[in-house]
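Case study 2.
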Amino acid sequence: MNGALMKASSRFAIAAALGLVVGAGSASAADLGGNCCADLEERIAELEATTARKGNRKMSLTISGQVDRVVVWYDDGRSSTTYYGLDNTNSSSRYILSGSAKVTPKVSMGFEIMIEIEAGGTSSKVNQFDEDGKLVAFIPNVNIAGVAGGNVGIPSFNAHNTDAYFGDARHVAWWMEHADLGRITVGRWESAGVLGTIDLTGHIFLPASASFILLNGGFFIRGPGGQVYTPQWSSIGDPADNNPGRTELVRYDSPSWNGFIYSASIAEAGDYWGTMLRYANEFNGFRVAGTVGYERVTDIASPGVIDPNNIAFIGNRPDITVWGFALSAMHVPTGLFVQGHYNHADFGGNIIGAPSGYWGESTTNKKPADQWLVQFGVSKNWFGYGSTSVYGEYGVADDWGADFTTGGATIGRNFAAPANTTGFTAVNGVTSTEMRVWGIGVAQNFAAAATDVYLGYRHFEADIKCVAGDTAFGVCNGAAPAVGTVNAAKTLPTEGIDVIVMGARVLF
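Prediction:
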């Protein structure tokens, strides 16, 4: 990029000099003075000195990225609203600085810095009561007149002309690659391990990603009487940090061998590692891709106060093990495709130690959980602009919001209302959750503009079971248990939610 700008500056200066010569008509070279070339060189040097440039001419520099913004409509059975101009967390807006350089014909080195948007209004953070994802932003004990004794909201985090919110690091890493031995990546990057669905169309994951909560996760679950429960849909869905997680690590990726690539990574203090095998190939008119992966996490969360003698800090460590696989196939001549994945997470029964936060472990007695998704449809360039993909999907996420039974006592999981709020219905003692998702949609690529336009619909339903009786273990919906229901399983009545997303991703 720098060299091109320098050449353009030089050509501009030369063209300007030639324009002077042409304008002079029949004037002789002597009329221009004997130091014309020195003046021209001085001008070129001045232009080069004020031209933006990268630090050196050895390492290349490429600027790329995408802008992905959407309009989201929802209906939770009691209310419906449209939110405009949100960032699409399924594939966030971002920009990338990357580069590489050859060391030898087979060895190269490079880097990547990827900055994405995570603040403000995004598709995963908005809910029925807040379009900015900042529900708890209140000034307590001040009424509208500024007198003590009430609550008044502070200005929106994403108020007009409030612009400083773009800039979370997704990637910051360097790499070294040998053509025959593979690549080593050091820095912040995706871990090797468990993946979600591999999208062969290249764009239906924009409205329908492998995660169920990146589109509607911030919305609160409602009951049939209009009550607003304390859990959000993200509370019972797959954790958004999977598929795969990003952290500080060292990762190895092998060269491709007959379509196979092996990867492994180790992260943090050696207490987070993963491995996976991927495959991609095309033969006899079929395009096939798949992966199988495994992760183990024993990283303990640091408490607010570090105490070397605190059992919560030095006691039992988390022991999360996760495995999963994905498989996708497309018949290229017709464009028919089917793709999907299955993931299973076991949280190791971490009773004493602090929860790690990995794979959604927010309590110390988290039940094993799993998730699967199947997508199908047709993707073909019917109109000459680029691929048109029409799809349907169905998936289930089990027990991501539930705690397990131990020592003969049903514990269950408790969900607290957001701070500085009132009117929410408590949901406690949750021992089983299931989220069911089905959807349809269409995505259209416009190759000439490097743009994908999409429209997707998803319907979400929830089954939540919890302890119905003994208040020592929580009450399902905040109401006193009925006589004879002590320690009996109870199903929480819930309403489903419909979500429509429409938007476009522009690559640059």
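The two ends are 14 Å apart (CA to CA).
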